[in-house]
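From the pipeline queue, job 12 of 40. The input is one protein chain; the requested action is below.

Action: predict structure.
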Amino acid sequence: MRYYPILLDIKNRDCLVVGGGSVGSRKVATLLDCGAQVTVVSPQFSETLRQIAAEHAVRLIERRYESGDLLGMFLVIGATDDEQLNQRVSADASEHDMLCNIADRPAACNFILPAIVNRGDLTITVSTSGKSPAMAKRIRQHLSNQFGPEYGQCLVLMGKLRKALLSQAHAPEAHKILFEQLLGAGILDMIREQQIEAVDKLLQDVLGEGFSYSRLMSPEEFTHK
């Protein structure tokens, strides 16, 4: 199977999770992180999921799944240990031409979920096309060590720089060269080491007067989380 790589905007989209156990809890947390409106249907819910629902606007429906639960949903995730139920969810989703993922059952999905490394606005995904989640997890761990929080912090700075340059009528195609100069000069290392004066100097050397750390973002943006 060859999967088409895509990053999906689910902000404010209605998403359904079938299953209220530990797997369902993880799926709900990821959906919430991406801004989805989440409904969970299950005869019972884990304490973790009940806590998540208490802290966020998660709708819990405490009963067995029914086909009508899919109506109005953008996507559905099956997260139960009932193989027959998972297959039913997959079949129902297919009838509605709906995005469907069944946990650990690639053949029952029309999309699969990769292993993820998040660094602010930087999202790195790893997929083995469903062949080996264990390998995907191992690669994700390596990437987590390789790409530290400075990458997310640098993206915040780059976004503010891009906005500032566009406000000065800079041609967008010219930004690539400027950003490559900043990265080539080691701005990521400077951010990681909290060398703010060096960041200021580099910005002024590449972009000119008026571009400095203090004018672009608050000091908290550069602190490690």
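Job complete. The chain has a mean pLDDT of 91.
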